[in-house]
Amino acid sequence: MLSEQSFELIELVAKLGSFTSAANHLNKVPSAISYAVKQIEEEIGVELFERHHRSVSLTEAGEHFVSHAKSVMASIVELKQSTLDINKGWRPALAIAIDGIVREDGISHLIRAFYQRFTDVELRIYREQVNGCWQALSEQRCQLAIGPSSNIPVGGPFEFRKLAQLQWKFVVGAKHPLAEVAHISLADLVDYPAVCVSDTASDYPRYRRGVAPGQRAMSVPDWIRAINCVKDGLGVGLLPAHLIDPFLANGSLIEKTCELTQADSESLLVWDRNVQNEAMTWLVDYLSSDQRLVNSWFLAN
């Protein structure tokens, strides 16, 4: 049976160009190398080398064999390591950071589809806010991120695709004093806290969306709490349309025209291109092609 040593031997002979040189490298006699190569050729059923007087050269079949040997050897090493890991109770895993801007609807569908497709790979999914996904990617705490903004604060080996275009609306609670103001100026905002989501990234300048000059901020852990704070009249804020449209429809939030605005922004799918395996390829393709899943994350109910 072909072994890792078989691949290494063929590659060495091809590199050095003779059985004698390979024998000297391995501290063996040339006849032992010649015999071992002949056994490999007989097992495969083709000649890998043309024999010359003092040297050898690869046949066309031999060139094909050598060109694929490295990837096969890498697979053998990976298989050995994964088998040892599983024996110790470890399994291959992919970590996914999901930006808080992404609604939780549909995440269970992603998990179910992944676990049906891969029986030996674990998913680790957790939430980040604002620039948190980018820091998680740069620190290699995750291999893929769903929903970070297109305001890319880090460099690195990252590929990305646009998932959605986000709209931002300035809103107040139905019973808030500013609900009666036709057009809200920046001066009007100074007396009321701006509700914003805390940035989970610690290594980048803190980014607080929707805070006017001179206005106090009220930082909360996630968008659900931000929405509730605005609904309860504790503050005002620029909030993502796909999360608040149901509350606008039932009247608990009111959209207002305001001097403080936020341009539309893109929400991205980002992954580390250095992570090349079947599970990563499947995830990127799945998340890029399932528009219903994406809509469940970025469109209002």
Give a nutshell description of this structure.
This protein has 301 residues and is α/β, with parallel strands linked by helices. The chain contains eleven helices and 14 strands. Strands 4-3-5-14-6 form a five-stranded mixed beta sheet, sandwiched between helices.
Plain-language structure description:
- This protein is of the alpha/beta class and 301 residues long.
- Helices cover 42% and strands 23% of the residues.
- It is built from eleven helices and 14 strands.
- It has helices at residues 4-16, 19-26, 30-44, 60-87, 107-117, 132-138, 186-189, 223-231, 241-250, 278-289, 291-298; strands at 49-51, 56-58, 93-99, 122-128, 144-149, 158-166, 168-173, 183-184, 194-197, 217-220, 237-240, 253-255, 257-258, 265-272.
- Strands 4-3-5-14-6 form a five-stranded mixed sheet, sandwiched between helices.
- Helix 1 (4-16) runs antiparallel to helix 4 and helix 2 packs across helix 3.
- It is elongated.
- The protein starts with a helix and ends with a helix.
Radius of gyration, Cα only, in angstroms?
29 Å
The proportion of residues in beta strands is 15-25%
Intertermini distance? 59 Å
Helix percent reads: 40-55%
According to DSSP, the number of beta strands is 14
Largest sheet: 5 strands, mixed
Question: Helix count, per DSSP?
Answer: 11
Low-confidence stretches: none
Task: Kindly name the structural category.
Answer: alpha/beta
pLDDT averaged residue by residue: 89
- Categorize the overall geometry: elongated
User: Strand order across the biggest sheet?
Assistant: 4-3-5-14-6
Give the helices and strands as they follow along the chain: HHHEEHEHEHEEEEHEEHEHEEEHH
